[in-house]
């Protein structure tokens, strides 16, 4: 866990006291607002000073609305068992608190009596009686807890069983390729000269070239990888590894999800690329463009085929909006998309994630594919979303191939002291559960936390507050692992924080991820407020601790997201359907252009500029 601030900032004031007006909220100093915590009308508020010693000196200190209580988790590193050789591991079961499910750790306080021990949970205060089998005699310190962890970072492993050998190379790559009529559109790739005419290449030709390169690369680097191909226009054609007779799905089959799923799962298992290279290469050369765009049915068949092997990938390439079969999209988008197509792609993404399948989506520049909806497939499975050109599609496919799943079914539970809550989350609780799903190396997630008004006084009297991460996941070799990290953070009683002590990396990544998420949920005004607050804060940090590389990247992120939010708000003026009313957390903003949707999805999976500087254990022990 990496924190943006060295201390937990507990002091708070209602926004109305800070001069916020026009929202019908009033409160006096020290009076709690009569609002749900989830409305976020108050937050941890601090003043940032240019250097220590300037506390309260007028214009030299600026009171900001940004919350600096932010922590970052490099999940890709935490689930990578190859990095965990120095971490304590045990096969003993985890001992949980009976109320909040916190885990007993080396920081826990256990009081011994004659024949029992009582653990007072440091997170919720519950007195937990530890059973007799959990106790053992100690030489001088009385009774001790059997199996209690010694370190603050512990990996709980299952007991070894006789399981079948898992071949980690035995995964599948499915190329799901659009060959509709619009793929015949050409672009100039080299200008004409005096003795030569310009050279034009169609989108399909660029895909064919990119696929040939990908097949050659897989043959050299992963000869045992299974590779299959599915194409779609007004029908879906399943080629598999190219060696058998293709299966064509058309007409009624394009709207029958059970039939499509069955066809994908039952199609002949593809051979490894070392055996199928020649067959697939020939099939790619024979592709011709024509017809409509049955994108949804093809994606469903591809995911079903890939789901037979945990860790498989589906790489979807298209240049048009789905206009036939399941997942078809309206011609004239409303401010928020119709529920049918987002529901289809969200459900398919959930199915892929549960099967340990990554889906990457790439569309061609200058087209309208409703990427805000199709991109859900990648967003929820850990894949990539990008817009490519004829010249860059091959590189993007290679990048998608390089994204290997380290763990599946990843679930993060974050606990803080009772009285802390996590803004912008559904539950107003000191315990947050986040389903992450598939995890690749670069996955990083951030959270912000705040103190409830009625808990601030008690927190200010405490030296430290506890935090615990419980990360459960399934490794590629099918081990069910739980990693628990527990630490304490010092509490500051000051309202002043030196800008140079804040972590720009954590704040920048969190701002990008949070604002992208809010924007995609339709909460554009909230995202805009966050962007303004963070922009001012990052400016102050950069003055005290210049880092041109980070300033440029994080500054560009904020600037780009600000432009997207401003454009959405401008476009929505006079339209009652976009009024920051949070229409639904499951409904993406259809008003987003493909280019804007690409940026928003990429910001949702933003990661630090230089992750290599992160400590291998990803924890600071205080």
What does it look like?
With 622 residues, the protein is α+β, with helices and mostly antiparallel strands. It contains 14 helices and 31 strands. Helix 5 packs parallel to helix 6 and helix 11 packs across helix 14 (594-604). The protein is globular. It starts with a strand and ends in an 18-residue tail after the last helix.
Helices, strands, pairings?
Layout: E1 2-3, E2 7-9, E3 12-14, E4 42-44, E5 46-49, E6 61-64, E7 70-73, H1 75-78, E8 88-90, E9 109-112, E10 117-120, E11 127-130, E12 135-137, E13 143-145, E14 153-156, E15 172-178, E16 186-190, E17 199-202, H2 203-221, E18 226-232, E19 236-240, E20 247-249, H3 257-266, H4 273-285, H5 295-306, E21 313-318, H6 340-354, E22 358-364, H7 371-374, H8 376-379, E23 385-388, H9 393-402, E24 407-416, E25 420-421, E26 431-439, E27 445-448, E28 450-451, H10 453-460, E29 464-475, E30 480-492, E31 496-498, H11 504-520, H12 524-544, H13 548-572, H14 594-604
Parallel strand pairs: 2-30, 5-31, 8-14, 15-18, 15-21, 21-22, 22-23
Antiparallel strand pairs: 1-7, 3-4, 5-6, 7-27, 9-10, 10-11, 12-13, 14-30, 16-17, 18-19, 19-20, 24-26, 24-29, 25-28, 29-30
Helix pairs in contact: 2-4, 2-9, 3-5, 5-6, 11-12, 11-13, 11-14, 12-13, 13-14
Structure described in brief:
The protein is α+β, with helices and mostly antiparallel strands. Helices cover 28% and strands 24% of the residues.
Shape estimate: globular
Strand content: 15-25%
Query: What's the N-to-C terminus distance?
Result: 12 Å
Structural class from helices and strands? alpha+beta
DSSP E strands, number: 31
Number of helical regions: 14
Low-confidence spans: pLDDT under 50, at least 5 residues? 12-44, 137-143, 332-339, 576-587, 612-622
Strand count, sense and barrel status of the largest sheet are: 7 strands, mixed
Based on CA atoms alone, the radius of gyration comes out at 27 Å
- The proportion of residues forming helix, as a percent range, comes to 25-40%
